[in-house]
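Repro:
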Amino acid sequence: MSRPPTLTLPPCARAYRLDTDRGEFAVHDARPDGAPIGTALLVPGFTGSKEDFIALLAPLAAAGFRAVAVDGRGQHESPGPRDERAYAQRELALDVLAQARAVQQAGNGPLHLLGHSLGGLITRAAVLLDAAPFRSLTALSSGPAAIETSQQARVRMLIDALGSLGMEDVWRAMRELDPPEAADAETPPEIGAFLHRRWLNTVPEQLIATGRQMLAEPDRVARLARTGLPVHVVSGALDYAWPVPSMDDMARRLSARRTVIEGAEHSPNVEHPEKTAEALTGFWSGVG
């Protein structure tokens, strides 16, 4: 679970509901002072939300890019039905394509797509449905297929708990299952309250359906390579969801740019946002 370092939007950003042909989605939209040289659509991961990208917004805008971070359906401030079928990967990928249509505007430059963790699997699925809207794809801390075996048991336990317990009870149980690096982190009270609120706002069926996706995701790297879309694989130096060597190999198979953010783990976007933004904007500028 990503822990944003702040909940305060920078002056360049505003929060609103993005109207698309597949419904409304809560977003944070950051814009540079002048005309954007490109636009980035940022898709969060499992148990995440648009707030996971807050620390990236100002540096991305300062580099000349518009950045739109989104809550997917059933995540935090975006509504979603109490039906697991609504969160099939294809449905979520179609949402991403609808969001892309809604944010693309004349004069805003090419559109770059980024997915963090689970968001990397969803954005890959969107590109495999239709790569045409995008100039590039960035997989941020997201691997080639299902999550690491050691993490699968944790996700299965969560899915089982969500099927029989209320969200508050599951929240308490989750705190006992956090990885050591999360358990050791000192979380400011306002961030802790936000994480709790976000969890309670998330639709449990969304978590069940997307958790199963992370357990069963096939390797679609070869299909992605055939799209010809430029890809950037970014991760921390350590990752508990996908081993770093598996992301190295994925980048090789894609002939992709590969960036490792030293000192970061599964969420470079919150752990080292300036370094991460520098890597992202360097890639986007090179393919834009």
